[in-house]
C-alpha cells in the first residue's frame, strides 16, 4: 500500500493499544514504525528492474521482522522505562505495527517477499495499492485522538482507533469476497467463450473494489476484460491484445527475475527501436505502471541488450478515470482499454 496508508495504519494500531495513554507522540511513533519497512526504496540494486523486483524484500520478511521488533522494543524500554509502557506492551505495539505492514502489502497486486530469504512473491490482489475507502477511517481515528483534550476523552478516542481497525479489516474481507464472486463469473465466461484458463488474474481497478480487471494469458496474445459488481449481464467482453515475444536467444538475468516477480504476466513490443517489456498486472491495459527497456537496435538493426535495463517513461491518461467510473457503474460499452 501507499506510505500514507501504512503510516495511518501504524498510528491507528498504536492508538488502539495505548488506550487512555495515547497522545501525539504515540501516534507519531506508530506512523514512523508503519513506514519503516518501506525504507528499502532508498537502496539501489543497480538497475530499474532490480529496484522493482527487490522492493518489499528483506524489510518485509515475516521471518526477520519479529527479531527487529524485539530489538526496537528492548532499545526503547531501556531508554524510556515506564510503568505503563512495559517491555511487553512496547513489544506488542512494535510487532503489531511492523507485521501488519507486509501483510497489508501482500493483499495488493505488487508481490511481497513474505518469506525472504526464501524465494517467492505473494499477492492476494483483493485491494488496489491505493484505496480511499480503506485509508480514510485510519486517518480519521488518529485525528480524533489528537483533538481530544482530556484523559477520558483520549480513552474514548482510542475506541475510535479500535473501531477503525475493525472497519478496515472488514473492508479487506469484503474485497476478498468480491474478488471470489467475480472469479466465479470469470471462470464461467472462459468456459462459455472457449478461452484458455491456465493463467488468469482477477484484480481490482484503481481506487475501488467494485470494478475488477481480468487478464487471461495465451501463447501469442492475452485477453483483457473488465467486470463490475453493478453489471446487469454476466457476460464479460474480452479484448485480444498481442503479447509479443522475446526476440533473442539468450535471456538476461534481469528478465528471469522480472518473470518470477510478475509470474510471467509479461508482454513484449518494439517501439522506436527499443524492446519494451511490460508487467501486465500493474495499472490498466494502456496505462501500465511498470515497463522497461531491455534492448535497443544498433545502426545495423541488430538488438543490443542493455547491461542495465531502463524504466520506460509510460504515459498516464488521467482522462481514463472518467471512463473507469462509467464502467464501474455498469456501462459495458466501455472498452477494457478505457477508450
Automatic annotation (TrEMBL):
Q: Does the keyword Membrane apply?
A: yes
Cross-referenced Pfam families: YdjM
Q: Which residues form a coiled coil?
A: none
Q: Name one GO molecular function term.
A: hydrolase activity
Tell whether Transmembrane helix is among the UniProt keywords: yes
InterPro entries in the cross-refs: Transcription_regulator, YdjM-like
**Record-annotated membrane-spanning stretches:** 58-77, 89-107, 127-147, 159-177
Entry keyword set: Hydrolase, Membrane, Transmembrane, Transmembrane helix
Signal peptide region: none
Q: From the Swiss-Prot or TrEMBL record, give the protein name.
A: Metal-dependent hydrolase
State the organism named in the record.
Answer: Vibrio agarilyticus
Amino acid at each position: 500500500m501507499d506510505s500514507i496508508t501504512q503510516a495511518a495504519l501504524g498510528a491507528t494500531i498504536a492508538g488502539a493499544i495505548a488506550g487512555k495513554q495515547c497522545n501525539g507522540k504515540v501516534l507519531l511513533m506508530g506512523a514512523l514504525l508503519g513506514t519503516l519497512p518501506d525504507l528499502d526504496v532508498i537502496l539501489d540494486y543497480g538497475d530499474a528492474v532490480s529496484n522493482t523486483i527487490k522492493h518489499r524484500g528483506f524489510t518485509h520478511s515475516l521471518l526477520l521482522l519479529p527479531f527487529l521488533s524485539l530489538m526496537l522494543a528492548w532499545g526503547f524500554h531501556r531508554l524510556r522505562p515506564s510503568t505503563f509502557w512495559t517491555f511487553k506492551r512496547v513489544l506488542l505495539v512494535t510487532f503489531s505495527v511492523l507485521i501488519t505492514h507486509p501483510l497489508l502489502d501482500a493483499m495488493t497486486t505488487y508481490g511481497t517477499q513474505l518469506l525472504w530469504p526464501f524465494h517467492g512473491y505473494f499477492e492476494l490482489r483483493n485491494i488496489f495499492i491505493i484505496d480511499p475507502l480503506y485509508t480514510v477511517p485510519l486517518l480519521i481515528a488518529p485525528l480524533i485522538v489528537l483533538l481530544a483534550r482530556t484523559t477520558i476523552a483520549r480513552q474514548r478516542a482510542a475506541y475510535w482507533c479500535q473501531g477503525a481497525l475493525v472497519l478496515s479489516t472488514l473492508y479487506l474481507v469484503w474485497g476478498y469476497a468480491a474478488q471470489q464472486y467475480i472469479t466465479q463469473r470469470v471462470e464461467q465466461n472462459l468456459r462459455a467463450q472457449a478461452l484458455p484458463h491456465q493463467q488468469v488474474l482477477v484484480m481490482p481497478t484503481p481506487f475501488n473494489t467494485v470494478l475488477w480487471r481480468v487478464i487471461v494469458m495465451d501463447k501469442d496474445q492475452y485477453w483483457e476484460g473488465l467486470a463490475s459488481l453493478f453489471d446487469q449481464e454476466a457476460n464479460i467482453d474480452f479484448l485480444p491484445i498481442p503479447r509479443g515475444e522475446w526476440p533473442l536467444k539468450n535471456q538476461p538475468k534481469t528478465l528471469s527475475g522480472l518473470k518470477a516477480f510478475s509470474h510471467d504476466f509479461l508482454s513484449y513490443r518494439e517501439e522506436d527501436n527499443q524492446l519494451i517489456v511490460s508487467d501486465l498486472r500493474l495499472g490498466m491495459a494502456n496505462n501500465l505502471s511498470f515497463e522497461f527497456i531491455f534492448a535497443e537496435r544498433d545502426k545495423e538493426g541488430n538488438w543490443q541488450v542493455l547491461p542495465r535495463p531502463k524504466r520506460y517513461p509510460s504515459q498516464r491518461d488521467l482522462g481514463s478515470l472518467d471512463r473507469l467510473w462509467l464502467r464501474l457503474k455498469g456501462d459495458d460499452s466501455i472498452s477494457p482499454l478505457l477508450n
